[in-house]
């Protein structure tokens, strides 16, 4: 899986909602009503990540969720990250 | 819920396994076989945290889990944090 250029990343980010590129990864954050809602979404994302065999770097405090995606083997952002980002967007929109 | 002194925290930490105090919080980390195992434990912890109405500041990357506990309202570590830490220890030991 090939590392994308910053130009390629910018074009792909334009198709997502609220993601930013920095430090060789793409990042987003979400705020929910409470912990239960945050963890419910995390669980949906966990199943999707496991199915894609590509996993997020993420952190949660109460109703806040921060997610960073990068591809370790490529030392940067690849199509894998955008595939998972797209799935996360769909989970959030469905939630 | 009253903020504990560093002496009180040290005594309580001695009864736990692998937790450290720094920056007004207690911290630990765990490593699992894979993401699924890590998230399974996170789910158990999430139910316990919700039951206690006291939630962790935590982050996960693949098989690694980092947890910090503090009590926002007390601006430090309280009995609530040690109660949740104890429950987390039990979940880990049972896992």
Report on this model:
The structure is a homodimer of 95-residue chains. The first copy, chain A, is of the alpha+beta class. Chain A has one domain: Gyrase A, domain 2 (2-Layer Sandwich), CATH 3.30.1360.20. Helices cover 44% and strands 22% of the residues of chain A. Chain A is built from three helices and four strands. Chain A has helices at 6-13, 35-52, 79-94, and strands spanning 20-22, 25-31, 57-61, 64-69. Chain A has a four-stranded antiparallel sheet with strand order 1-2-4-3. In chain A, helix 2 (35-52) runs antiparallel to helix 3 (79-94). Chain A starts with 5 loop residues before the first helix and ends with a helix. Chains A and B meet through helix 2 and strand 3 of A and helix 2 and strand 3 of B. Strand 3 (57-61) of chain A pairs antiparallel with strand 3 of chain B, so a sheet runs across the interface. Chains A, B: This is Putative pterin-4-alpha-carbinolamine dehydratase. Chains A, B: Pfam families: Pterin_4a.
Termini of chain A, distance in Å?
30 Å
Shape of chain A: globular
Give the fraction of residues assigned to helices of chain A. 40-55%
Largest sheet, spatial ordering of strands of chain A: 1-2-4-3
- Hey, which two chains have the biggest interface? A-B, 16 and 16 residues
Number of helices of chain A: 3
Architecture of chain A, according to CATH?
2-Layer Sandwich
Would you tell me the overall average pLDDT of chain A? 97
Determine and state the CATH class of chain A.
Alpha Beta
Regarding quaternary structure, what we see is homodimer
Number of domain modules of chain A: 1
> What Rg of chain A is obtained from the alpha carbons, in whole angstroms?
13 Å
Uncertain stretches of chain A: none
The major beta sheet of chain A can be summarized as: 4 strands, antiparallel
| Number of strand segments of chain A | 4
**CATH homologous superfamily label of chain A:** Transcriptional coactivator/pterin dehydratase
Instruction: Estimate the strand proportion of chain A.
Output: 15-25%
